Amino acid sequence: MKPFSVCLAALALSASAIAADDAVLLRNADVYPVTAAEMKNASILIRDGKIAEIGEKIVVSKGMKTVDLKGVRVYPGMIDSGTNLGLTEIGSERVTNDTGEIGEFMPQLKALIAVNPDSATFGVTRVNGITSAMTYPGGGRGGGGGGRGGAAPQFIAGQAAMIHLSGWTWEEMEMVRGAAMQLSFPAIAGRGGRGGGGEEPEGGRGPAPFTEAKRNYDQQIQKINDFFDAARQYQKERTSNAPGFTKDLKMEAMIPVLEQKEPVAIFASQERSIRDAISFVDRQHVKAVIIEPRDLSKVAAELKAHNIPVILGRTEALSQDEDDPYDKEMTLPAEAYKAGVKFAFGTFSNEWSRNLPFNAARAVTFGLPYEEALKAVTINAAEIWGAASMTGSIEKGKWADLIVTDGDPLEVTTQIKAVYIKGKEVPLTNHQIDLYRRYMTRP
Amino acid sequence: MKKILLLAFVALAVRAEVTVIRNATIMTEGAKGTVKGSILVRDGKIAEVGENVLVPEGATVIDANGQWVIPGIIDCHTHIAVDGNVNEGSVSVSSMVNIKDVINPEDIAIYRALAGGVTVGNVLHGSANAIGGQTIVIKMRWGKDADGLIFEGAKPGLKFALGENPKRSGSPQPGSNAPLRYPATRMGVEDTIREAFNEAVAYKAEWDKYAAAVSAGQHPVPPRKDLKLEALKEVLEGKRYVHAHCYRADEILMLIRIADDYGFKIRTFQHVMEGYKVAKEIAAHGAGASTFSDWFGFKMEVFDATAYNAAIMASKGVLVSVNSDSENGELMGRLNTEAAKAIKYGGMSRENALALVTLNPAKQLGVDDRVGSIEVGKDADLVIYDKDPLSEYAKAQKVLIDGHKYFDRDEDISGRAGREAEKQKLLEMEKQDQAQRRRGPQ
What we know:
The structure holds two protein chains of two kinds.
Chain A: H1 2-19, E1 24-31, E2 39-47, E3 50-55, E4 65-68, E5 73-76, E6 78-83, H2 120-126, E7 130-135, E8 156-164, H3 170-173, E9 174-184, H4 210-240, H5 249-258, E10 264-267, H6 271-284, E11 288-291, H7 296-305, E12 310-312, H8 328-339, E13 343-345, H9 356-365, H10 370-376, H11 379-384, E14 402-405, E15 416-421, E16 424-426, H12 431-440
Parallel strand pairs in A: 1-4, 1-5, 6-7, 9-10, 10-11, 11-12, 12-13
Antiparallel strand pairs in A: 1-2, 2-3, 5-14, 7-8, 8-9, 14-15, 15-16
Chain B: H1 2-16, E1 18-27, E2 34-42, E3 45-50, E4 60-63, E5 68-71, E6 73-78, H2 108-114, E7 118-123, E8 131-139, H3 146-149, E9 157-161, H4 164-168, H5 186-215, H6 227-236, E10 241-246, H7 249-262, E11 268-271, H8 279-285, E12 288-291, H9 309-315, E13 319-322, H10 335-344, H11 350-355, H12 359-364, E14 382-385, E15 396-401, E16 404-408, H13 409-414, H14 416-439
Parallel strand pairs in B: 1-4, 1-5, 6-7, 9-10, 10-11, 11-12, 12-13
Antiparallel strand pairs in B: 1-2, 2-3, 5-14, 7-8, 8-9, 14-15, 15-16
């Protein structure tokens, strides 16, 4: 066995020697690594798609391709922590929609294998500097049934994947196959806009009475716990190879979750749901990320105490409650930061994914320190999704996921001059730019 | 004594009508371009703009402290402040219904739009019908009643809709029990509009004949008034604008040809995501285009949407604005950066980009003599931003309409604790009230 692995290593070495011809040196740029201080007039050596070296003095070997970036900046590519990229082309056209399979508990489903690398949205998104994304198997707001709606509520939609936004196949785009198990946590419906309901409506009309809604809600949480308990039982039988044990694909998919290798991405928005989700995480001993916790400010201390990171939705949003301050959604990131809750941003819409940086900037406008906003679209996301060794900052050994800009990458008027994904320069074009060029020439 | 006091109040009130905003960077969107200086407001109108403006005695002075001032933002397409459903979906031609009848001045969206610098909005029906209903232009005078919101003198409009939305009721989702409603295709949408104008032309002829007879001194029996056709007659007479929801190039061209045939004008094409494909035809017709900054992919008919739409259309001579289509005021509250996207996508100049949400929509709504730029004689609808308004980092600090302050961020923030306490008090009273009722009469 040993000589064979040596042989493999030798093969790998010679492969990298050949690939050295593909090395690219980005020179004289202002480099913003995110995890370290800004470097003026620095160079980045890209080899085999990875960052091989960063520094002021990198020796240019003969024949090496160099790109002069004087006067522009280099940042790590941005990461959107909430999308259905590759799975949904046109939201309202069912046949172009592969999110939301039928079934209440579907942990065996993998978003990755349904990613269409030629989805027009990839090109639109990456020219704005987004180089990776989490893509989820479900829409996130319950309701399975292949996007048909009206089906039974869905709890586990399947495995979300972290992907690069460029590649010939989904295998080439894969970063983390099972980056998270998507779980939609129940919520008590009918919370009105006028001060929060909770009282039984008179005359038996309108939403279900609170006691009924609460019973239903508790039953749903019980159902989720039962499923996890069953998975735990399966895990035991599997380990002990109990008599009569047979392999079950659903349960197999739960093993990495139970082993805390894969976090549960829990969609919980309301205070009660978030609190109960935290209790659930405690009880089941799983790793968790809470997705779009709109009522974060009321539970920030608990989230911090449990060390649970969150994915915040768009700051280009308004509170449903008319009594809330107009800027409630915009100040949410600043509140998370002040409470010490770790967070990243997700847009939760393919069409708005390209506006990820603007949402981060808006958080700054309403009180978040700038550096934290930048981290929330880069390194924080990479860390939360287990991809920090691959992307999220400009560091030696990571994929060269880089963007070249003429200014602050979060600012709306900034131009993205170049995008590198896994060290390859991605053409700055897409369906929208093609149409622009074509129709500007119409006589 | 009472009289004297009253007089003193009146004098104070008169004096208070003069406001000076000084020490500001002013993007006038007028001939003066961007200037550093002051704006003098008298009786709700802009009286002076310049580097050196004398502050009259007793004037209210707002020191902008180097901050930015722009004209109040105008949204050429919104659905806020509407009480209930925005579609009268029972018929394909519903020109008899009027948004003016269902204005809800207590919609919180008005305040939230205001907090984002919006001072004027074109409130429209939805797009379920080929010919929707009558539209109205409002000012965001938060706190006034429904009549107080209406932009006096602004010409009303009529909403049209083309493409997927009006044909949806003719082709419901499989399994739906909804009755079929004509039209179900773009061909049917064209026919629906033609049939309506065919009727309207005959109706107008009847009334013209009647008017001629009356002016000839005769005493004819007046024709029967038809409220549906009355609105279309006003379109034919140029008394009512047409704002047409559309996406694809084919349907845009189709409506231009109907308008040509019946002798009326399309004032604005709304959304118009493929407007860039027929920009030449839109410009030749003299229509404006009010589009989204960067929407795409949400339905099939926007598959060819491009964020460069505004820039292409503008470069081909179309009067372009950027709108929100907002129901809750969210996108409305950040139209300044929606405009800035035209700098990113297509390299528009800063002034031209800001005009997309100020002067251009004012022109499209025919109110540019009143609003849309900071020029002497116009309404003092002004927004003060803490930073460059075309930056993501800017937020509106103060918003003036007709010279009156309707939004102040500092006051909004300082009032929050009090409003929350009041809410809790009311909730507590409600709880006690309910407990009392449960216990029954004492």
